[in-house]
Amino acid sequence: MTQQLFAPQHFFGYGSLVNRATHSYPNAARASLTGWRRTWVHTAVRPLAFLSVEPAPDTTIQGLIAHVPNGDWAALDTRESGYNRHLAEVLLQDNTPHPIQVYAVPQSAGPVEAHPILLSYIDVVVQGFLQEFGHKGAEDFFATTTGWNAPIINDRAAPQYPRAQRLTAGETAVVDAGLAQCDATVIG
In this structure, is residue 2 part of a structural domain? Predict the structure, then answer.
């Protein structure tokens, strides 16, 4: 874990942390992060692909920032094991810059067939974007994320993702349409 002296006490969530049902961080606020894009990756830490960010100078992604109560990063660091924290700056909705920490995987080999993505994970992320940013936000999530060439396991009937949520039929349709647009392969 990258530790920074006098580090900001807010994190930027760009995936499952956008879905407020997956955490209890109070007073989360919408923000955008420029110079990064999302990507599906894998490492030796996990058997499945997971979402990370990587530098991308011409890309802006949306997400939520939240304060880490009492500066206690232990619980969030545990949730985000396999990631390192990086200092960055987001723009709040009123275009005010704000320092944050963003979690990113330090090294990745990219998704491969041995490391598929869980559909229940994608569902949680897209549900969060729909709730926070509407249909445009969900479209932007798909457009600003790479790594859709990994196979996606359809585990909706028995979700394997630990923070899985129930989606409405409309939310499921948005996920399925986004995956179709990305030419993603859903198996199972």
Answer: no
Q: Is residue 3 in some structural domain?
A: no
Global pTM value: 0.91
Strand partners, 55: 36
Spatial distance between the Cα atoms of 36 and 60, rounded to a whole number of angstroms: 6
pLDDT along the chain (188 residues), means of 10: 57 95 89 96 85 94 91 84 90 92 83 86 98 98 94 97 97 98 94
CB atoms within 10 A of CB 117: 24
DSSP state of 15: S
Residues in the chain: 188
Look at residue 2 in the predicted model and tell me its pLDDT: 43
Instruction: Give the Cα separation of 87 and 126 in Å (integer).
Output: 25
Half-sphere exposure of residue 181: CA atoms within 13 angstroms, side-chain side = 15
> Is 187 within the bounds of a domain?
no
Kindly list the strands in the beta sheet with 152-153, ordered across the sheet, starting from the edge strand earlier in the chain: 117-118, 152-153, 186-187
Which domain range does residue 157 map to? 10-182
Residue 4, in any domain of the structure: no
Rounded Cα gap, residues 126 and 112, in angstroms: 22
Q: How far is CA 9 from the centre of its chain?
A: 19
Q: For position 38, which CATH number holds?
A: 3.10.490.10
